[in-house]
Amino acid sequence: MTYLAITALVFGYLLGSIPFGLLLTRAAGLGDVRSIGSGNIGATNVLRTGNKKLAAATLLLDALKGTAAVLVAGHYGAEFGLYAGFGAFLGHLFPIWLGFKGGKGVATYLGVLIGLVWQVALIFAAVWLVMAILFRYSSLAALTAAVIVPIALWFVATPAIAGLFAVMSAILFFKHRANISRLMAGTEGRIGAKG
Q: Does residue 32 sit within a domain?
């Protein structure tokens, strides 16, 4: 790995590690979002505060940090965009500022995808939306979309991009292992449910 590749990875990590869900809920006077629901700092848990605008802002900002990492680093070479995007994803999952306990990475995953192959990001969004409407489980919707994305990328993108998202999808499944257990037990919280 070259010096520039390491720099791109670190840049992406630092950008991705900004905990927007936590910052926004604190700024709005709603306390620490980690003390409610799943204890997660992502948009789905922010939604459990009952504040849809804050949840939407969290989703947007968490996605944008992935997109920004790809576009800024990608200016110096396509491969650096890949490193920075992966770094942003890892930064969101394992932020140094929060003891490496971050979000589950779905929005940042989508943001990286937008930066690299926006057409497949539309597929992700469509699959997520359909699954969310049908079943009202954010985790199930995200995991289903994360299965589709690497397959779609295999046909329309480079092997490096498809491989990156295969790894990222596997990490998403690992981060959602508790959700998967709750889905199987029928105890997973539905979209919009508080607590």
A: yes
Q: Print the domain residue range for 134.
A: 3-185
Residue 193 belongs to some domain of the structure: no
* pLDDT band at 195; cut points 50, 70, 90: very low
Alpha-carbon distance values, 99 to 26, 45, 91 (Å): 18, 19, 11
Q: What is the 3-state secondary structure (H, E, C) of the chain?
A: CCHHHHHHHHHHHHHHCCCHHHHHHHHCCCCCHHHCCCCCCCHHHHHCCCCHHHHHHHHHHHHHHHHHHHHHHHCCCHHHHHHHHHHHHHHHHCCHHHCCCCCCCHHHHHHHHHHHCHHHHHHHHHHHHHHHHHHCCHHHHHHHHHHHHHHHHHHHCCHHHHHHHHHHHHHHHHHCHHHHHHHHHCCCCCCCCCC
- Provide φ and ψ at 192, rounded to 5°: 90, -10
Specify the number of domains making up the chain: 1
| pLDDT tens digits for range 74-111 | 999 999 999 999 999 999 999 999 999 999 999 999 99
Asked if residue 101 is part of any domain, the answer here is yes
Q: Region 153-168: what's the mean pLDDT?
A: 97
Residues near 98 by Cβ (< 8 Å), separated by ≥ 6? 19, 22, 41
Whether 194 maps to a domain, the answer reads no
